[in-house]
Here is the input.
Amino acid sequence: MSALDTAKVSVSYAECSARERIARLVDAESFHEWLPPAERVTSPHLAQLGVPSAFDDGVAIGRATLAGRPVFIAAQEGEFMGGGVGEVHGAKLVGLLRRALRDRPDAVLLLAESGGVRLHEANAGLIAVSEVMRALLDVRAAGIPVVVLIGGANGCFGGMGIVARCADRVVMSDMGRLAMSGPEVIEASHGVDEFDSRDRALVWRTTGGKHRWLSGDCDVLVEDDVTAFRDAAIAALDASMPVTLARLELEHALLASRLRLLPEHVAGDEAVALWARLGVADASRVAELDVDAVRALRTV
Amino acid sequence: MDWNTLATALFGADHGITQEGDLLRGTVHFDREPLAVIGTTNHAPIGVRLALAQARAVLDTIAQHPGRPMLLLIDTQGQQLRRRDELLGINRAMAHLGMAIDLARRRGHRMLGLVYDQALSGGFITSGLIADACDALPEAEIRVMRIPAMARVTKLPEATLNALSQTNPVFAPGVGNYVAMGGVRALWQGDMPAALREALANAPVDDRRALDGQERGGRRLSASVVQRVLDAA
Here is the structure.
């Protein structure tokens, strides 16, 4: 290897394709893909809508090693239909999770980038996402950690936003977004006063990595850098946290107290108000702080 | 169907289920066995507060009545479309509700969903769709999104989508399509108590929706793709 190859050049996770993310995240040359594009497992539903299909239906799945340990990995391709989950896409994820239950890798990594259910095959996508949830929770219950990594330009929304919060651990970059409904959908439904989807700062204060870190909705906040995601994935290899009644009671208390913390009407920005009430120092400066500085501010 | 009409048909006029806002909650006796009922009404939008209220009811039942079956009565317009709910982590609150239902199943509670009026996307995925099985009344309405909104998001003409919705089960709203795809196990027709009795006795505890979808012809690829992943070299 030349000095150039080994030099620590930062590569943006957000700008990588799904397969580039996998290649750079796991050990070099260790990824073995199942149902690769050559097998042409495509959506049976898109053609009749006149929409092009993809030979992998927008998700790559397979096995690899991470720091020498066996893992299963999936990466959604945001460039194809926004990472939307259709019948085949969802079934590939379910297959990967069922196989993890059988073969017991050290972890399952899910590189999520998705708008949620693919509306072009809406019903099948909705059922598929719920099948992913159940399969994921089976894997989690078996003591195999499921780690969701979020840093793609399309964020992680809809059903996949729920799936992410079912995992053992969530890793996000400050570029990443995690939520339920996209700002455009909320704006279309309740008007621009409710949510101005073109106000990028507002969108990130509401759904972005820094907010999710400060509110405890992600477990790790990293820079938009594939090496940082890799390091966080390695650190998560032993992060199994089976769902128990005691753990769900803690989760319930956290969510209920957060709901009480934010009144229906606050003066000024709601995100800043919430952070301040969570005890975050410098709440009004969060947007301008770098990732390291924000990491130090978390109170939950 | 109105929830009270349904509850009366199932459990008699003294069913004991109460409505508080959009939340339904109660304990009934069915075939002399206690059954917890948890649900929503008024086509409720599921925001953080209502997701937590339902999760509370599920967690209380797990803690206080181990093994007691639960019936989830579903009538929702989907997730609450508000910025405040997004800020407060609505996806996390819904995941919490889903995980509570999933945990109950793992601890031996029979978990049944019943769409008795309307079910849309986010409000459905962490209730009926994560129960052991989800049934529906024939007149129920199940969909992901209304067609005008779908046309906006997909940038496909409304006329095209309307035409497809007449013929394509994968795309079209309708409870029959959900049965064909395996998402809904069965429709309750006629004798309501008999239908509930059958569901409590026969609903599977494993997730066989992809197989049902294949057998019923509404979702032909899912089960085989899962199997191909399991068999891949």
In short: The first helix of chain A runs from residue 3 to 6. Chain A touches chain B through 83 residues (CB under 8 Å). The mean pLDDT of chain A is 95.
